[in-house]
Amino acid sequence: MALFTENESLLDIELGRILRIPSKFVQGKSDAHPALIKNLAKQMETTGKNILPVMVELVSEDNYKAIENTQILEAAKKANLNFVWCIVINNQMLNQVLVESGKIIRLPILTALEKDIVEVLEYIKTQKYGVSTIKPKEAAKSIVEYRKKNKITSLNFLTKQRCGIGDKTLPKIKDFLVIADL
């Protein structure tokens, strides 16, 4: 059962549009706890649908990969729903979804205020393992001082700033502190 007419290409699918896609066409597995999946499935059995859409990537005709809200897909399949509401997105849109859902913070360090950098580093410190050595105030001050005198092209300079960010810590913060503006 193709979702496209003969005159449509799968490349014509509008990104960001909510679609009702047959569950069997969407692949993906959630790492959510089985109790959560079971609870969601019971809710969906009652309503007959999901309300929060699954974010999917188009792989090929009638083939989608769930990339966000995968617990909803798994619960919909467990509830034997024939269709699931989805939004087709690309990588750029996925970043926006992750920011909007609060799963990631992306702060552009070239323009960010020192206090904002401190806040993000404090957040990272409370959320991530292996970053307890970070000194948020010292790191933020180092970033602000460094960018006054140098063009920042990477975060590597932080490993030499005595701010608690070393070679092992740097990869854990690079998705939060970014060079380019959003």
Give your account of this protein's structure:
There is one protein chain. This protein has 182 residues and is of the alpha/beta class. The protein is elongated. The strands form 2 sheets. A 5-stranded mixed β-sheet has the order 1-5-3-4-2, covered by helices on one side. It has 2 domains: 10-100, Conserved hypothetical protein from pyrococcus furiosus pfu- 392566-001, ParB domain, CATH 3.90.1530.10; 107-178. Helices cover 36% and strands 16% of the residues. The chain has helices at residues 34-47, 70-78, 91-100, 114-127, 136-149, 170-173, and strands at 18-22, 26-27, 54-60, 63-68, 83-88, 107-108, 177-178. It has 6 helices and 7 strands. The model is unreliable at 1-10 (pLDDT under 50).
How many domains make up the coordinates? 2
Q: Which CATH architecture of the largest domain would you pick?
A: Alpha-Beta Complex
Distance between the termini: 39 Å
Q: Helix count, per DSSP?
A: 6
Largest sheet: 5 strands, mixed
Rounded mean pLDDT is 90
Low-confidence stretches: 1-10
Order of helices and strands: EEHEEHEHEHHHE
CATH superfamily of the largest domain: Conserved hypothetical protein from pyrococcus furiosus pfu- 392566-001, ParB domain
| Broad CATH class of the largest domain | Alpha Beta
Proportion of beta-strand residues:
15-25%
Oligomer: single chain
- Give the strand order of the largest sheet, numbering strands 1, 2, ... along the chain: 1-5-3-4-2
Specify the structural class. Answer: alpha/beta
Say what the CATH topology of the largest domain is.
Answer: Conserved hypothetical protein from pyrococcus furiosus pfu- 392566-001, ParB domain
| Strand runs, count | 7
Choose one word for the global shape.
elongated
Helix content: 25-40%
- Rg over C-alpha atoms, rounded to the nearest angstrom: 21 Å
